[in-house]
Each structure stands twice: as structure tokens, then as C-alpha cells.
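Exercise (ungraded).
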Amino acid sequence: MPRGGEHDDAAPLSIHDLTVAWHRKPVLWDVDLDIPQGKLACIVGPNGAGKSTLLKACLDLVPAVSGEVRVFGQPYRKQHARVGYVPQRESVDWSFPVSALDVVAMGTYRRLGWCKPVGRSQREQAMEALERVGLEAFAHRQISQLSGGQQQRVFLARALVQDADLYLMDEPFASVDAATEQAIVDVLRALRDQGRTVVVVHHDLQTVTEYFDWTVLLNMRVVAAGPVGDAFTAEHLRATYGGRLTLLEQAASALGQLASGTTRSSNG
Amino acid sequence: MGERGLLDVLLLQDYNTALVVLGTTTLGVAAGVCGTLLLLRKRSLLGDVVSHATLPGVVAAFLVMQACGGTGKSLPGLLLGATVTGLLAAWLVPVLRRASGLKDDAIMGVVLGSSFGLGIALLGIALNLPSGNQAGLEGFIFGKTASMVRVDALIIGLGAAVVIAMTLALAKDFRLLCFDEQFAASIGRPVALLDAVLMMLAVAVIVIGLQAVGLILMIALLIIPAAAARFWTDGFIATMCWAGGIGAVSGWMGSTISAMHADLPAGAVIVLVTGCCFALSMACGRRHGLTQRWWRGMALRRRVERQHLLRAMLECGSPGTHVALNQLHANRRWRASALQRELRRAVRSGELDVHPEGWVLTPLGEVGARRVVRNHRLWELFLIHHADIAPSHVDRDADLIEHVLDAELVAELEALLDPGEALPSSPHPLERRAP
């Protein structure tokens, strides 16, 4: 784990001794880590481990008690253009009177600036992003008429329109159908292959080794961070999740996959 | 204002009536547009807090102006006082919430109650002053259009124009703020500033509406048009336009009716008209109105019943043979009246022929029946073999499965159909329904 001055200045996301508290109770304690460029990284940990809070602290959405976050070597407020964000699906009211296209076009607002209306070029960008997530046929539907998986893909498309170098996504795989999960994974891999960095809050230990190449095990503090092969071990999982039996069973099967995954990658 | 002829009022013949009608109509537009934002930001009751909190401002301004030697009756001065305390209340609610940790509704009750109480207490003091200039201060509570003069109409017009212009200029940013505050903050939009601007717009609308509608009923003019608009449209700007339109109609009709009947106060009539607009929208709204919903449900039920009937006809006898009523009843559980009605409708649409010994499928009906059976079978296979992607794709109501799934998948499913079954698996593969 990096400490003090050992951080890489060019890292897309580098978090220095970050502590975040709600009402005097610390949620994150001395979190210190770097996410390297071009990685598809996940943050895993039990409920209440502070995964979402960590993302929000990176985006200045919740105040830090101490420590700091650097995005490509600078504070976040100077790097809005390089970061895309996918909030949790439940964080908004889906009965809101907007169409899928309207929501995706929100990804262009930062570039568009104040007081200018959404024009043809913004709508075209939004349409392109909807095509990338396979929802072009639903562009003009009011968002409550979309299924949960489709709503999640709308959020992903909005982030794609942001055309960022670093993506922070809060539970994009939460309660989506298998087709959506596959579609999202494909998009995330495409982003990584373009050299962009993607950080995903993830809850399904089974798929960690299959989807991601970098992982952060978090439970109020960083238990382990690094390439999936190094950090995602039985010992670290136990330290993250405690002795919860079902979770350890899940972890065991995940590690089984990991064993086969490492052989595959060492061959490749 | 005495009783007037309808024509005089509608044609705005009388100068003072014209002022009132124009003023309340513009006020209605501004209230509808701004109320939509409040409603979508889930801050609608904050509007009520603000409007009640204007009373101590009005009375305090009167007292201060009198103490300074004036008559205390300058309208801009009174409205300035209302603005100050209105803004103060709007600022106080979130501050107190953060400091106390209590829920929004509790804090709003505290601020609304204590500010209105303060207003009433100050009003009592003002009304007992010896000067005699205080008459009309109570007019702010329930509104008093009769006393409106040119400067009032000007203030309303100017204020409404500013509010509408600001809302339209910032429409896209307000849309983002109301829909997804966190995303707005993540792209660097100053959420707190935008919220402050929104509250200022709301205070502006409330303050210019005090004279016409009064502070107690002002919340209705803000919220009801916006709520009614949602029955008509699913767009953000469109909702604002509908709400503005409903507000305008309410303001215009309300003040017109009130001008014709001197004993009906304008504020109350305006709000009553708004309420009628809401009831009408809820009943007939093109998008989510009750009639619309009932109609859609009815159409779906009819379609499903027709599909069941055609399928039963095919299953009860080979094409060309007559099917009797008791055979149909044996085939599936029908309500007798529903079955009779559906049979009559199918005969009328040419899908069945009626004979003394029963019903028979016409060629048109047979094509339809085979399509229904095939679609049904294929959807079942799809659910069995593709359970992982199925739920988001199944559309039983689609005319043809090909309209939903791609040709490759349909071919794969067709291969799974049992060729030995009595019913041909795919009689007319891609045929559209006959007109």
C-alpha cells in the first residue's frame, strides 16, 4: 500500500490518507491508494463498508475530514472534464418527466455550459451513446417505462457521453438482468481497451475475477488493493468480510475461478 | 366593483378590470412555471412556508415606514418587506434542518407556524395604531384584487416576466438539478446556488401574487397547475408549458368570474378554477388521466379475450367444423356474458361466422387464430430456453414475435416446435394481419 510521498502523480485516481465521517462516526479511515491507468478496477466489501462514500468523497460530494484526493495529479474541482460518474440507480426518481434521450444528453451539459439549450449536436451524441448500450429504440420513452436494466444502461450511456478518462460507477450491476450485465461489461472492457480507467463499486464476489483486473477490498479501511491475482485472496477476503459463512463460501468459489483464471492469463 | 355584463368583462372594457385580469393571468403563467420546478424538486411545501412567512415582513415594513414618518402604504415597500422575510424563511429551513437533524416536515411546521404567528401578532399591533392608514393590510392574507391599481399590475407583469425568462434560460440546468442532484454536483454545477436561485424565483412569484391571491391560497396556484400538467405530458419543458397554460386559464377565468360577481373574492375563485382544471386533467389527461388508463386497460382486456377465443376455436375443432357454446365452455373458463359479447364482436369483425349449430372460423379468423397460437407457443419456448434474457424482452401483446425478437432467434425457437402437434407450427410465417 502506498504511503505518504510514494504516490504516482500521473495516476488517474490517487487517494491520500482519506478519512470521511458522518455525524462524528468515521465511515472511511485513512484510505490510501492509487488506481493505475487503463485498469478495470472494482471496490468490494460488505454493506456499510463505505464503498459508495469513497466514490462520493472522490467526487467532492461528501466532505472529507482529512486527507485528499487527486485526479490525474490535481484536485477534483479542476478535473471535472476528465471524470464520468454513474450514481446508484435508486438515487433518482424515475417517474421524473424526461425521456431516455434527455437523461443521456445531461452528459453534455458540462461542455455545453450555462443557459444554452440542448441542440442537435448534443442530441446526436446522446443517440450515439444510446446505440452503444443497445437502447436506441427506447430513446423517446419516458424513463419510468424502462426496465431496471434499461434504466441502468441509460445512466451508463450518460457517462459515455461525458467522454471521460476516469469513470466512477456506483453499483452499475445492481439488480440488472443477465443481458444488461453482459452489455455493461462489454462497454466497460471497451473503455479500458481505449486506455481509460474504470472504477466500479461491485457487490458480487463471484464475478470479480472474470470482469476486473484490479481490485480494492474495503471495509472502512483498505484491506488490500492491487491486481486481482494478488489482492483477491482468501486471507484478504476473510479480513474484509469477517467470519460470515455464506460470504466465505462465495469467496471460496470465487477463488476457485481465480485459480483457473490465473492459469489462463499466465498462458496468454 | 359592481355587477358587470359578461361582454364588458371578457372584452376588458373596463380599465380596472382589464388590469386585474391581465395581472392575474400573467401571475398564473409564472406560478405554473415556477411551481413545476418546486414540485419536481420536491420542495412544494417550502412554498407554503415562504408564503406564510411573508406576513411578518409586510406588517414590519408597514410599521417601519410609519415610524419613519410615511403613511406606510407604499406597495413596493410592503412587498420588499415580504421578500426579505420570505427569503429568510426559505434560507432558515435547510439551515435548521442541518443543525437540528430533524426531518423536513417538522422543521417546515416550526418555521411556518412561528413566522405566521409573528405576522398575526404584528398585524394586531398595526391595526390598533391610531393613524388609520393600516386598512388593507389584512388584504394580503386572502388577497384583494379590487384594490389593485396600475402599479400592482406593473409589478406583477414585470416580476412574472423576470421569473419566466430566468426559468427558461436555466431550464436545462434546473432539469438536471431536479432529476439528479448528485450528477449535477459531480459535473461541477453549484447545486446550492441553483437551489437558491430556484427559491428566489419562488419567493418572487409568491410576493407578486400576495395582492391578487393572498398568502394563504398562493401555494395552490403554485402547486395545482404543476400537478395537473403531469396528466397531460411526459416532457420537462412540456410540463412547464402545460402548467403555465393552466395557471393562465385559472387566473383569467377566476378574475373574470370574480369581476362579474362582486361578492366572490378573486383569489378564492382563481384557486377554485385551478382545482377544477386539476379534476379535469386527472379525469381526461391525455397521458396519465383516469379515462386514458381505463381505456388502455379495456383495450388490452378485449385483445386478450379475442386471442383466447380464436385459440379456443382452433383447439375445439378442425377448421371448417362448427363449434358449439358448450365446447367453448369446456375448453377454458369464461364468464358467460363476456364470451357471448366476444363472439358477437368476432362475428362483426368477420373472424367468425355464426350458424344454427354453432360458430365457425372464417378464413380471416383462421389466419388470426394460427398466428395467435404460433406466437403463444414461441413465447413459451423463449421463456423456457432463454430465461436469463427473457423478462426484459417478452412482449406477449406484440402482433408477431418477429417484431420483438430477431429473425435468427425466432428460427431457433421454431426449430424447437414439436412437428408432430396437431396444430401446424407456422402456417404463415411473416404474414401481417389482414386489414
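Further reading is listed at the end of the chapter. For now, observe: The longest strand of chain B covers residues 352-355. The longest helix of chain B spans residues 290-316.
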